[in-house]
Amino acid sequence: xxxISILGSTGSIxxxxxxxxxRSKNKWDVVGxxxxxxxxxxxxQVTEFNPKIISLEREEDVAEFRRExxxxxxxxxHGQEGxxxxxxxxESDIVLxxxxxxxxxxxxxxxxxxxxRVALANKESLVVAGPLILETAERTGSQIIPVDSxxxxxxxxxAKEEKNHVKKVILxxxxxxxxxxxxxxxxxxxxxxxxxxPRWKMGKKVTIDSATLMNKGLELIEARWLFDLEPEQLxxxxxxxxxxxxxxxxxxxxxxxxxxxTDMKIPIQYALTYPDREEALLPSLDLSQVRALEFYxxxxxxxxxxxxxxxxLETGGSLPVVLNTANEVAVxxxxxxxxxxxxxxxxxxETVENHKTRKIGGLEEIFDIDRETKxxxxxxxxxx
Length: 384
Ligand code: MG
Fold this sequence. Notes:
By secondary structure, the protein is of the alpha/beta class. The protein folds into three domains: 2-146, NAD(P)-binding Rossmann-like Domain (Rossmann fold); 148-262 and 288-302, no CATH class; 316-384, RNA polymerase sigma factor, region 2, helix turn helix motif (Rna Polymerase Sigma Factor, Chain: A), CATH 1.10.1740.10. Helix content is 48%, strand content 15%. It contains 17 helices and eleven strands. The protein has a seven-stranded parallel beta sheet with strand order 4-3-2-1-5-6-7, with helices on both faces. Strands 9-8-10-11 form a four-stranded mixed beta sheet, covered by helices on one side. Strand 10 and strand 11 form a beta hairpin. The protein is globular and about 55 Å long.
């Protein structure tokens, strides 16, 4: 049995992962689970999978959980340190890292430092600390397998290729709910409209990032580190059907693509079983039903965060950290109803433009920049 810990078990990726595992329970032993505040679902998961170490976001949730569920014998922790303890837990072979945002950085790095195989769904940790994570992985022998559908696609296309074969990697974007809407109409779209993603069912943060296309910008930066590519080797296209998850152009002109039904269980299962492939949990892809696969250029005027992300990709240093944090804060403010949709891009742009890029020394400096940027972005929001 392979022993697995799941960080972010009550989120969309975490739930999908447990579903994948449930179909072949004799192969998997869930030894660790960490979650945010959804105690009700967490309790169900702990009851079903009986992990040895668990963690919740807040201390008070841990106290409540103990009261509600006194029979649980799991060791229980809280906060980022708690998630990190689950990530580092001795017994686990694989850690699925699926906490959203920069909060996933410490636990992800913990798993990498402990030499685990990391099935990586938390894109922000590579965006803000790509070089640090990859250097650490090299040292500890930790294997990082992407879970993000586009990166899983690239990973699969590159599995048997030499690095110098690759000319260009193209990530696809569904275009989100506002692809067909004019820039003017997009300005005052509501939270419900922004959350109504045409193809993927995902958590709130990534769904809003898909509506602004920031998600694709973050994925470009993630791909740079994951596949050791130069910024100019990275591109993206809108592909509304979300069947082709990415394309890799080789130097001889061949283009490889990875296609699959639009369901996160596929890349999750691949990351867990790699280099094996197991039976699909879903019906086969029927291209005669899909009929058309379309591709469009991205309108960077309408989606200015894409341009900004490209700038951060090229500049590096502290800029991707600032971009990521400003976006996290602005998206949160939009979700809480404090700012209209169009302010997300405006606030992120203003924060990034006011920043003087510097080199990053290490992990603590990343958190310093994160704290600094949070304050500045919140000030900008309050001024509106
Ligand atoms: Mg993705």
